[in-house]
Design brief:
single chain; mainly alpha; 70% helix; globular
């Protein structure tokens, strides 16, 4: 991969950081609405990325992934601290807080689709020979927002895998009987190894995962194609 390709791929980092920040902020905001002020008290309901960014998961891993493969496969921010004892209705509120993150990513994917369309028409009115820097900048932005569609759909789908500590595990646990839910939650961060094993050693799991992403992303991509032909 040449230097130009690295620059183009690294350009997705801003939308990646924005997306994981919004994901965690959505958890915090809904938790506040459900009665828990923990995240708010710790300054996590903010667009300022500094309180949210995990040096390892938000920067080092994505950069390493880009350098090694040219793509971002996984990223995360600092988990939002939540005290479920403050919820008015534990199962209902925990589920609402949980799905807020993935839903925020699907909404960002929609915004990325709209910005992709808008930038396409802006670029169509710019002479690339008269303002090469401006045109290149717009082109980078176009690529970033288009990649942001798939990125955010991927984040939403990945987080809804029903294995701890991912968001989907909270939804499943809240559907289980209390004793079984307690055992299920006890998996904790050991679930990361289960997830890695599924992707690396279970035949067809990665293909199913990619297929789900493609299915969820299709309406967004169709929207873009509707205006860009």
């Amino acid at each position: 991969m040449d230097l130009r390709s690295y620059v183009e791929n690294v350009y997705i980092i801003p939308i990646l950081i924005f997306s994981v920040v919004i994901h965690e902020m959505a958890h915090a905001w809904v938790a506040l609405k459900c009665g828990d002020t923990t995240a708010k008290d710790l300054g996590r309901i903010t667009l300022n990325p500094i309180p949210h960014i995990d040096l390892f998961g938000s920067i080092i891993i994505p950069l390493f992934s880009i350098i090694a493969t040219g793509r971002v496969f996984i990223a995360w921010a600092k988990p939002v601290p939540i005290d479920p004892r403050n919820f008015r209705n534990f199962k209902r509120d925990d589920t609402l807080v949980t799905i807020a993150g993935p839903i925020s990513n699907l909404l960002i994917a929609l915004l990325c689709s709209i910005f992709t369309i808008a930038l396409y028409y802006i670029m169509a009115s710019v002479n690339p020979l008269e303002g090469s820097f401006g045109f290149e900048f717009l082109n980078y932005m176009l690529k970033m927002f288009y990649a942001g569609i798939i990125l955010n759909v991927s984040l939403a789908v990945f987080n809804m895998i029903p294995i701890p500590p991912l968001d989907g595990s909270h939804v499943l646990a809240n559907l289980l009987p209390d004793d079984l839910a307690m055992r299920y939650r006890s998996i904790g961060f050991m679930g990361i190894f289960i997830i890695l094993a599924l992707f690396n050693f279970v035949p067809g799991f990665s293909q199913v995962f990619i297929g789900i992403i493609s299915f969820v992303a299709k309406p967004y991509l169709n929207l873009v194609d509707l205006f860009i032909r």
